[in-house]
Amino acid sequence: MDVFLGIGIAMAGYFIGEGLKQMNHPKAYEKSDTLLIKERDIYFYIGHFLGITAAEAKQLAGDMKDIPYIEINGKRYVQKQMLKEWTFTLVEKQQG
Predict the structure, then answer these.
(1) pTM for this model (two decimals)
(2) What average pLDDT does the segment 37-52 reach?
(3) Domain ranges of the chain
């Protein structure tokens, strides 16, 4: 029984140590930016980036003809990082 407890503590120490190594790692969250967003969810993400509602984002974005997208099996997807950059470019155009 003591052996299992020792093994459990050793494994817990290992996993905690590995987790601490990953903290403050600059590329830890980079993979989430390669997320592909479905066309129907674009307004939600634009609103999320700017802190506005999806309805306000729809008014701001308009028809989105110039948005960079990827087409897979006839469905449009937008890469999260590209959408974020496009959104901030759009806001700059609206302001200036």
Answers:
(1) 0.57
(2) 86
(3) 28-95
Render pLDDT for 48-74 as a digit per residue (tens, 0 to 9): 888 888 888 888 777 777 888 888 898
Whose structure tokens read 């980079």? 30
Dihedral sign for Cα 21, 22, 27, 31, please: positive
Query: Taking the CB of residue 77, how many other CB atoms lie within 10 A of it?
Result: 17
**Cβ-based neighbour number of residue 47 at 10 Å:** 19
* Beta-bridge mates of residue 38: 77
Q: At what angle do helices 42-50 and 80-95 cross, to 10 degrees?
A: 60
CB 9 within 8 A of CB 51: no
